[in-house]
Write a structure and sequence with these properties.
The protein is of the alpha+beta class and about 240 residues long. The protein has two domains: about 1-120, Carboxypeptidase-like, regulatory domain (Immunoglobulin-like, Sandwich), CATH 2.60.40.1120; about 125-235, no CATH class. It is built from seven helices and nine strands, in the order H-E-E-E-E-E-E-E-E-E-H-H-H-H-H-H. It has a five-stranded mixed β-sheet.
């Protein structure tokens, strides 16, 4: 279970392996349009065990649209990867929270991630709502990291204490916000996902509260089962 949690935390570091499948009983219809894309290859990926695997792919040659039909037992984070060919770019990966139904993704070649608009997924809408605040925490963290670096170049004990205190305060704010968001949305799969991917090492009472706040269908989902197992393991090791 700890390996799976680590996979959620470091997903972009894994090497993708191809596992394209034809799913006859698909329950998720994904339509993608990348404005400005005339050539390249798009890969639809998900995590299996601790590895990103390709579940669908298409070669783009003139038509910027892409359709995929996949089967998901419950809402799950998927990853759309754009292979630009010879063009180097770090803007080539788009994560989105998929769930049964029709999902549309509109984006552009120029700003593949930043311009993305995803419709048809309640969990993705909640994830975007969470990210608006979480990104602020990340921005504050970058500022503190810069101050840390400057202080290392010209050490000052009082500055060190001040920076570390600010970092601890920021971390507590981020963890409490995430825990509150997850607990408030116990009727959505985003709740256990955030617990595992954002605050897996938070104090046990918070994780326990999130797990207990999950609605029955969420508890039976992929991430719900993972969180239940993770909480069980944490309790066993912390006795």
């Amino acid at each position: 279970m700890k390996k799976i949690v680590l996979a959620l935390l470091t997903v972009i570091s894994f090497i993708s392996c191809e596992k394209k499948e034809t799913v006859e009983d698909a329950n998720v219809h994904i339509t993608v349009n990348v404005d400005g894309l005339s050539q390249g290859k798009l890969y639809l990926q998900k995590i299996e065990d601790t590895t990103l695997v390709i579940i669908d792919s298409i070669l783009i040659n003139g038509d910027s649209k892409f359709e995929s039909h996949v089967k998901l037992d419950s809402p799950e984070m998927l990853y759309l990867f754009l292979d630009r060919g010879k063009t180097n770019s770090i803007d080539n990966s788009l994560a989105f929270f998929a769930e049964p139904g029709n999902i549309t993704i509109e984006t552009t070649l120029k700003h593949f991630f930043a311009d993305a608009k995803v419709k048809g997924s309640k969990n993705h809408d909640l994830w975007m709502e969470f990210k608006k605040i979480n990104d602020r925490f990340n921005d504050e963290n970058l500022v503190l990291m810069e101050k840390r670096l400057q202080n290392e170049l010209k050490p000052n004990p009082s500055s060190t204490d001040s920076i570390e205190a600010a970092y601890e305060k920021l971390l507590k704010r981020k963890y409490r916000y995430t825990a509150h968001f997850a607990t408030t949305h116990g009727d959505a799969a985003i709740a256990p996902y955030l617990a595992l991917s954002e605050i897996a090492n938070i104090n046990m009472p918070y994780l326990d509260t999130i797990q207990k706040s999950m609605k029955p269908d969420v508890a039976k989902s992929k991430y719900g089962k993972m969180l239940t197992e993770y909480v069980k393991e944490r309790k066993a090791t912390e006795k």
